[in-house]
Write a structure and sequence with these properties.
With 94 residues, the protein is an alpha+beta fold. The chain has one domain (2-87). 26% of the residues lie in helices and 21% in strands. It has 2 helices and 4 strands; from the N terminus they run ββαβαβ. It has helices spanning 39-44, 59-76; strands at 2-4, 31-37, 55-57, 81-87. It has a 4-stranded antiparallel beta sheet with strand order 1-4-2-3. The chain is elongated and about 45 Å long. The N and C termini lie far apart (28 Å).
């Protein structure tokens, strides 16, 4: 798993998950990502979660997640939001 934070913008990002973000599976997706936030942010929002659901991402979706991370860090402070990434599991054989 790779974690992304705002210290290296090209490879690391953070965001504020105001709800569970579900990213549907696509044929081009090879990676999965989720947005995470620091526990203190969840407490401020009166939520029990500190991450969104894992979803497959392509380049366009990753850019959207990065924008959410930037907004979350601007609102709640540097390093409060980030993106975690991992390889997508193989498609089940039929």
């Amino acid at each position: 798993m790779v974690c992304f934070d705002s210290t290296t913008l090209e490879t690391q990002m953070n965001t504020r998950p105001s709800e569970h973000h579900h990213i549907p599976r696509t044929e081009q997706s090879l990676h999965m990502a989720r947005i995470c936030c620091a526990p203190e942010v969840s407490k401020l929002k009166k939520e029990d979660i500190t991450s969104s659901q894992w979803g497959e991402v392509d380049a366009a979706r990753l850019e959207g997640l990065r924008a959410l991370v930037i907004a979350g860090n601007e609102l709640f402070g540097f390093g409060t939001h980030w993106i975690e990434m991992r390889e997508a599991p193989p498609e089940p054989t039929r």
